[in-house]
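[Meeting: bench + compute handoff]

Bench side (C.D.) handed over the final construct sequence. Compute side (W.E.) agreed to return the predicted structure before the next meeting so the bench team could plan truncations. Sequence as handed over:
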Amino acid sequence: MFSGIKGERMKDGIEVSIKEIQKKFGKIIAKASECKSLTVQKIPTGSLKLDWILNGGLSQKKLTEIFGAEHSFKTAFIFKLIAKNQKLCRLCGGVFENCNCNEKMKRRILYMDYEDTFGIKKSGKSWAKKCGVDLDELSIIVPSSWEEGIDIVQYVVQNNLFDIVIIDSLTQAPVTFVMERDTEDPTMGVKAARNAVFVAKLFQAFAPTDITDINESIKPAVIYIQQVRDVIGKQSSFQLPPTPTGGWALKHGKHVSIGFSSTIKLGTDGKELGQKNKPLKGRVVKFRVYKDKVDGQYLKEDSFDFYIEDVQLGQNEDIHISGGNIDTLKELIEIAIEEGFIERAGAWYKIANTDLKVCGENALIELLHFEKEVLKIIETQVYDLIYNNSRLDVFEEPVEFEDLDKTIDEEKTIKRRGRPKKNQ
């Protein structure tokens, strides 16, 4: 843009300005070419469908909100997330047993237990074990107040002491300002103001001190659980959906927000429970991604089956799923059908690019359960799609500028004249 002596002086002036800022404030400024880009490791959630929507799972160095009403399996989902990541390597993100890293180390997880899940409640430990959590590899901390907990989170994130930090939950955290006041004193909005401080401190901890150092970009993922409340102050003729608590700071500060609900009950055969006298074995957990500033997959919703007790799947007695687990085989089948790895025509299912063809969902489950080679093919295709980020390729072929201009002109013509009618 600049040429000659004027351009050289401008370039020298920019370099001098960068050096002056670095001298006074540190390496918080640099040329874009000097900034080290890091492929952020993903945090698998334990649900294939949710990882499919989130393009591999949750991300490091991001703030994630998990909210929902009572008995919506928020804690159970967190336990499955912990169990999944305890089996992964901290450095490469691969399976720890098959990892080839020089210094093998499992992912470190910190659980901030305001709900006293692992304290007096013995059922909390047994439920966590049933969900696959290794209690010896999980660090538990119980802060005395909200302020102490937030200072701990800030220190952990700044020094990268853990890979995942879970807060259960922000709603239950006792605020010192409220505890020191009389019971009759008003405390409206105090928690929302404190949450604004939490977001500010957390983002300060996320910020790197040296943007040219690739290790500064590695920060833990922070996940907090929230309850819901009714919408206040809005008049409507229909019932408004519940909203998470915490004020506007959390609403704008969080990177990912996932809402959970559970209404459909499952019986002993894995089907929807119709009669009340049948024992409850599981639930269909529905989730919706309300916000995703990482991959942009917002307002996406789906569900997975979560079983509390052991259940037989299909008509074969040898096929069953143990309690405390998600039906990942069902998730695998539904994703494979959606992506075309399994072709469906009525009641018939056909493995793509093969001659294997079965009739009925039970026959497909038996095929994938007993034919390990076929299951391996489907798993490889689905896992490669989800965890290798192959869905990031938006365009299959490169788009030329001339074709793009032509498409824009055609769209303008359609808007003026209307779309042509199809031939009858």
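W.E. noted at the follow-up: The radius of gyration is 26 Å. C.D. will use this when planning the next construct.
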